Structures are given as structure tokens and as C-alpha cells.
């Protein structure tokens, strides 16, 4: 039996990295399907009538536990998407993929923008961007968009300033280190951007509902906001507002989908989808809908429960640890 060693692993890693880059370029549009076809066929990726099919190669017949879990997650995603309701062409979930987003938000956002005929202003605002390398707008930045990032962590802010020196200097990316509250959000955004923008992304694991409710200085076409999937519709729940709140990795964070939808309704936005693992909700401004999105009064049509285990960094986690604090329910 052949003995698999570090040389073989290096070759496999190089091939995987090469194909990952090719797939990323195909998804962001810099690699045409005609150019991509011979590359994907070499790697066992075939195009069927409605979707791609991947033939998985197991080098030398070796399959470790991490790879097995990845295959299980792929199979679970396929199982979920096989439900008849996902055959509705207005749904967004089948379009999900990740380039730089934490989960499948990159693909869902790209499909929303495509349905808006790519006419949304190519500007964004995102707060809670981490170190800048995993968020919902980095892919937009790499496609020539411009915008504003806000981040509270000093360590993450230092990384952003080092990693994005050029685009910051060019003025395409405005960055400010700040702890976002409902009282300072309009000043923070307004110092860089005003009026209509393409995308607003909110992910601060705390006062998301209260901050979004207060934003008035910009009018986004699309809003991506994290929701707390522990509380299914029709339950309207949120944490109590606390400008000093810091998430402690429990279920005391953010607000339920029904609560987010209520705020969206007041601000003139329609919920159009949620991602499969129950993390983010997508809203589109009502004047832009034009029968191109799923519109329902039943929030259960959009809701996904916490399936954090579908993605590697949240292995085996179906929900957050319970917290005894009550929050606000109405």
C-alpha cells in the first residue's frame, strides 16, 4: 500500500489552493465560464441542468475526520435545499456561497444586486467588520465599490489599517475605529457617506436592532443584519438596549427575526431571505422590489433555525449557550 507523506500533502494543498482561487474568480466574474470549463472539469466539477455537481477525489483513499465532517455538511446543505419550497426561483438560499463572508452571504447578496439590475449605488457601509478579511463587503470592495467600515476592536483596527493601506489612501475605503451606539451612528456614517447607498451591513452582536432603527443619514437599497435564530417567528425579542453591551458568546445577543422585520417594515424595507444557517437576514427597500423577490406575510417562509454546525468554524454548534437575562419581548 502506498504511504502518503508530506510531499503528497503539499501537492494536494497546492492543487486545492489553485482551484479555490479559480472558483473565487469565477464567482466574482473575473473568469468567464468558457475559461473556467476546462479547469473545473480537471477537478471533477460538472455542470448539470440547474446546478454544478462536484465529484470528490479522495487522495490515495485517505479520508480524515475533518474531511468526513465537511462532506456531511455538504450533504446536509443539499438535503435542505432539496425541499420543494426552494424550487421557487424567487428564493435566495440556492444562490449562497462564500468568498469573504462568514457564511453564504456573498452569494445571496450578489444575487440580490443582480436582481436590482446592478443599478444600486456602488457604495456600502458595514459595522462590525472584524479584521476586514471576513465580512459582507470585502468582496464588493474588491469589485471596485467604495464605502465605510466601522470596527470597535483596537486589535482589528490595527490589522485593517495595515492590510488595507492602499485602498484607504486612495479614498475608496473610509475606516474608523469606534464603538457603535444608537446615539453616535448617524455622526459616524455621516462623516464619510450620506444619502442613498447600495448596501448596509450590521453585525455587532448586541444592539443591532436599536442601531439600525436609528439610522437616518443614509438610505440603503439592501440591508444585511444578523438576527438571533434562538427565537423563531412570531416571537419578537431583543436584548435590552445597553451602549456598553459586550457579547459573551451566549444567546443574549441581537434580536429575533420578527423584531427585525417589524423595524424593517417601519423603515420601508421588505424581508426577502435569510441564510441557511440562521445567521443573517436580507432586506430590500420596498420601492425596488418589482416582483423579483419572495414577498410573504408569513415570516416562517424566511426563517432558518440556528444551524451553525454547517460551517467549519462553528463545528458541532447548533445554538448559543443559554443566558439568564430576560431581554425584551413584546
Notes on the structure:
The protein is α/β, with parallel strands linked by helices. The protein has two domains: 6-62, no CATH class; 90-329, 3-Layer(aba) Sandwich (Rossmann fold). The chain contains ten helices and eleven strands. The strands form three sheets. A seven-stranded mixed sheet has the order 5-4-3-6-7-10-9, with helices on both faces. It has a two-stranded antiparallel sheet with strand order 1-2. Helix 9 links the parallel strand 6 (195-202) and strand 7 (218-226). Helix 1 (6-27) packs antiparallel against helix 2. The longest helix is centred in the N-terminal third of the chain and has 22 residues, at 6-27. The chain is globular, with a radius of gyration of 21 Å. The model has no long low-confidence stretch (mean pLDDT 92).
Amino acid at each position: 500500500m502506498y504511504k502518503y507523506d508530506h510531499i503528497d500533502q503539499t501537492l494536494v494543498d497546492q492543487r486545492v489552493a489553485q482551484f479555490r482561487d479559480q472558483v473565487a474568480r469565477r464567482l466574482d466574474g473575473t473568469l468567464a465560464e468558457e475559461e473556467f470549463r476546462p479547469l473545473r472539469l480537471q477537478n471533477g466539477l460538472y455542470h448539470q441542468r440547474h446546478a454544478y455537481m462536484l465529484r470528490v477525489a479522495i487522495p490515495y483513499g485517505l479520508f480524515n475526520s475533518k474531511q468526513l465532517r465537511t462532506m456531511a455538511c455538504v450533504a446536509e446543505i443539499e438535503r435542505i435545499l432539496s425541499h420543494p419550497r426552494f424550487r421557487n426561483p424567487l428564493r435566495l438560499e440556492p444562490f449562497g456561497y462564500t468568498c469573504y463572508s462568514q457564511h453564504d452571504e456573498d452569494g445571496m447578496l450578489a444575487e440580490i444586486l443582480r436582481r436590482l439590475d446592478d443599478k444600486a449605488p456602488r457604495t456600502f457601509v458595514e459595522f462590525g467588520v472584524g479584521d476586514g478579511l471576513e465580512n459582507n463587503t470585502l468582496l464588493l470592495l474588491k469589485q471596485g465599490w467604495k464605502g465605510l467600515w466601522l470596527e470597535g476592536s483596537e486589535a482589528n483596527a490595527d490589522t485593517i489599517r495595515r492590510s488595507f493601506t492602499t485602498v484607504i489612501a486612495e479614498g475608496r475605503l473610509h475606516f474608523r475605529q469606534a464603538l457603535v451606539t444608537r446615539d453616535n451612528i448617524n455622526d459616524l456614517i455621516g462623516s464619510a457617506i450620506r444619502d442613498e447607498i447600495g448596501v448596509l451591513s450590521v453585525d455587532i452582536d448586541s444592539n443591532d436592532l436599536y442601531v439600525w432603527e436609528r439610522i437616518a443619514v443614509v438610505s440603503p437599497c439592501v440591508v444585511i443584519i444578523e438576527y438571533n435564530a434562538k427565537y423563531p417567528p412570531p416571537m419578537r425579542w431583543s436584548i435590552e438596549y445597553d451602549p456598553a453591551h459586550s457579547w459573551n458568546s451566549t444567546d443574549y445577543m441581537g434580536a429575533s427575526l420578527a423584531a427585525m422585520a417589524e423595524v424593517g417594515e417601519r423603515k420601508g424595507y421588505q424581508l426577502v431571505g435569510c441564510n441557511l444557517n440562521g445567521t443573517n437576514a436580507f432586506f430590500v427597500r420596498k420601492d425596488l422590489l418589482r416582483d423579483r423577490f419572495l414577498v410573504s406575510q408569513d415570516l416562517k417562509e424566511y426563517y432558518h433555525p440556528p444551524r451553525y454546525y454547517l460551517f467549519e468554524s462553528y463545528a458541532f454548534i447548533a445554538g448559543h449557550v443559554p443566558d439568564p437575562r430576560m431581554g425584551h419581548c413584546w
